[in-house]
Amino acid sequence: MLGTAFLILIGLLAFAVPVAAGLGILGLALEGIYSKLPLNMALGEITWATSNNFLLVAIPFFVLLGEILLRSGIAERMYNSLILWVPWLPGGLMHTNIVTCAMFAATSGSSVATAATIGTVALGEIQKRGYSERLFLGTIAAGGTLGILIPPSINMIVYGVLTDTSIPKLYLAGFIPGFVLASLFSLTVLICCLIKPEWGGKPIPATWRQRLKALPDLIPPIIIFIAVIGSIYAGWATATESAALGVIAALAIATWRRALSIKMLINAFEGTMRTTAMIMAILIAAYFLNFVMGSIGLLKKVNDLIMGLQLTPGQLLFAVIVFYVILGMFMETLSMMVATVPIITPIMVKMGFDPVWFGVLIVILMETAMITPPVGINLYVVQGLRKSGRINDVIIGASPFVLAMFAIMAIISFWPELVLWLPKLLER
Amino acid sequence: MEKLMSLAAQLSRYSLRFGGTLVLLAALLIGVDVILRKFFQSSIGGADELAGYALALGTSWSLGATLLDRAHIRIDSLYSLFPRGLRLFLDFIGLFLFLSFFGLVAWRGLSVMEQSWVSSSRSHTALATPLIIPQSIWIIGLLILIFLGIILFVRAALLVWQGEVAAASRAISTRAAAEEVEEEVRFLKERKPKRMES
């Protein structure tokens, strides 16, 4: 049964059937082969219940928030302000890229949005200042992935909904690893530029007066961060409600900047709904598939199989990481999460891993998947922003940062407190 | 057919905007609700329920437009290595399977709606919304998806029939694959006149 399911899934996805259809058809096929009951009778109910799940409402909110930030020039001003604060460290502006990505990640729930937004404004600087193009592109592709680790995070919402884990706790758990990972990215740039000083580019002259004058451009992202994250921990709002507050704050700032227009809103609407429909189609199919897999006993079989291997928790963890790194080279992250997380998380929890901690690990693995070829969404995004050149430049430039991601996985495996300390603080 | 297609494209634009408007309204409603609750100890009541409907309706109305815009994710690691003809064949298979699955979703959705109508069900909340209202609008979205999908399928098939492979590919291939085909065609076109000269 396991082999059949696996083969059908691989077959459907390898032949480029849309992921949502692939998961749904697999559900129907498994029902046809293994179930005596007409499970698809429940498809209408499942779709309706998934579609109006209040927790998932946060997804279109975050997509809309990102669209507004991009189209109102808020992100551009933030980058241009931070440029003036380029550190004297070797690698200059590349550190700025990472810092800007980390800051933007604190207002954005999506890695694609983070890489696209920062990339749009940053790419013009490569030639101007003589940086190594590859490493520079790598900082944006990798820095962008912080979007889903530093809260808010669409992937954490999906994980929370799939596994019944508290989303506010997942958010809190992402903070410290997020900033440690950003620091590791910076360290990577530093090491690369110490080895090859010519990669480092020219410093940007700025006076203190210019720097201070540009500081107010950092206020809008901070306001949005407070609206989204502050409102949760002040106990004012749930995760979804805080996303709505973020949308309102972004609208208010866009109005204040005189960037709000009907045309801009319509463009933002179209972009938002395309992304939302794409995500929801996959989620709907995945819920149906999980229902079928549960009903025909497939979930239990996977469970028995893995438990039967008699692995120690450490071995299992290692196997899971290898599994996701390999799968992540070929699969898009959201599809990968909805297809595997409901199966693997219960097993990990049974083996004694904390579901919040495991959620953070999964998110870091998804970040790795975003910059590992051949399928890595952030590689595509950054390549898409360039007007010329081969995607290999981006792939090579992003590769040192994959090592930084392995490092953070090792760090949180040996010191789980790094992840769990903040959420535990909240419990008290 | 082309007229029908441009009509479909227009319909998809408006359905996306309808969905976006619902999402924005939901965000405003929830935001106002949070502020009222915090500062005025009162509440609109049912904002979360309405936001849920906004997601359901917005999603179903946008699924078709997303299909037309080729924004449903497909994994092209292997696909991109295939020859053009096989890719186009897989495009048709993929589209067919997508429509089959969501056709079944719409079909089962209809019986959910019918059930709500027959038993005049209401939501178990303060609003006690008659479920037939959101569910019927939700079903219309799914029907739009099926309608747009069938037009897309038939048009792409006609284009292949007429030998317009590049145009068919532009309609239903992945974005990267369609660009490749177009480059190929452009290259062929540029080469042709030169050959005639020599």
Short overview:
The complex is a heterodimer of chains A (428) and B (198). Chain A has 22 helices and no strands.
Detailed description of the structure:
The complex is a heterodimer of chains A (428) and B (198). Chain A is mainly α and 428 residues long. Helix content of chain A is 76%, strand content 0%. The radius of gyration of chain A is 22 Å and the shape is globular. The model of chain A has no long low-confidence stretch (mean pLDDT 89). With 198 residues, chain B is an all-alpha fold. Chain B is 79% helix and 0% strand. The interface between A and B is large, with 66 and 65 residues.
Described by strand count, sense and barrel closure, the largest sheet of chain B is:
none
Q: Are there runs of chain A of 5+ residues with pLDDT below 50, and where? A: none
How many helical stretches of chain A?
Answer: 22
Radius of gyration of chain A: 22 Å
Helix content of chain A: over 70%
What profile does the largest beta sheet of chain A have? none
Report the structural category of chain B: mainly alpha
The low-confidence runs of chain B, each spanning 5 or more residues with pLDDT under 50, are 192-198
Q: Cα distance, first to last residue of chain A?
A: 46 Å
DSSP summary, beta strand count of chain A? 0
> Percent of residues of chain A in beta strands?
under 5%
Major protein interface: A-B, 66 and 65 residues
The average pLDDT score of chain B comes to 86
Query: What is the string of helix and strand elements of chain B?
Result: HHHHHH
Structural class of chain A: mainly alpha
Based on CA atoms alone, the radius of gyration of chain B comes out at 22 Å
* Oligomer classification: heterodimer
SSE string of chain A: HHHHHHHHHHHHHHHHHHHHHH
From the spread of the alpha carbons, the general shape of chain A counts as globular
Shape of chain B: elongated
